[in-house]
Design a protein that fits this description.
Belongs to the wax synthase family. One of its GO terms (cellular component) is membrane. The chain has about 190 residues and is an all-alpha fold. It contains 7 helices and no strands. The chain has one domain. The chain is globular, with a radius of gyration of 21 Å.
């Protein structure tokens, strides 16, 4: 349950952060703009669309400009270059898990999450047919929902990162459910 709630919060919290982009454009009358963090990732109809155009566009742009495009000059296969980019992103996330949580047990699942998503993107790129929009959406979010706990596990297990902020969201011992007094005429 924690991983699911954390997954949903990651995909939705950025809309609050993106409000600053709107204010900057209004205040400066479109003279200055900020890049949006996300572009409605829930609407993704393919795994490549999710990672390439919708989710975490700032990091996506950094990885594209610093890894994907330079490697693409030397390696002709875009699929191999994309897989290498996912592997390096996975190693960066492993580093974060080790430094932030000192959790060696999360190294393999975190790396596997990015490797599997990279493989899914390669398969998606070479799929001979285009899936109908609803089926594409279901497949995309099924892959994400299966692989997300691999990477988000350390974050969800550490209450101080997300769940420690508000005790009502803590699911330990069902404390988030309000305790009602037992009625006096309750049968045993």
């Amino acid at each position: 349950m924690r991983v699911f709630i954390y997954f949903l919060s990651i995909l939705t919290f950025s809309y609050v952060i993106d409000i600053q982009t709107i204010f900057i454009r209004i205040i400066t009358r479109d003279k200055y703009t900020l890049q949006w963090l996300n572009n409605f990732p829930f609407l993704s109809q393919s795994i490549r669309e999710f990672w390439g155009r919708r989710y975490n566009q700032i990091i996506g742009t950094i990885l594209k400009e610093s890894l994907f495009l330079p490697l693409n000059l030397y390696i002709p296969s875009r699929s191999i270059v994309g897989l290498i980019t996912f592997i390096i992103s996975g190693l960066l996330h492993v580093h974060i898990a080790l430094v932030a949580f000192e959790d060696i047990s999360s190294v393999l699942p975190t790396f596997a999450c990015f490797l599997l998503n990279g493989i899914a993107c390669c398969i998606d790129a070479h799929l001979p047919i285009n899936l109908p929009p609803l089926l594409g959406w279901l497949m995309t979010h099924s892959v994400l929902f299966v692989t997300a706990p691999m990477c988000l596990g350390p974050f969800a297990r550490d209450k101080d990162v997300f769940f420690g902020v508000n005790e009502l969201l803590s699911y330990d011992d069902d404390q988030w459910i309000s305790k009602l007094p037992m009625p006096k005429n309750c049968p045993k």
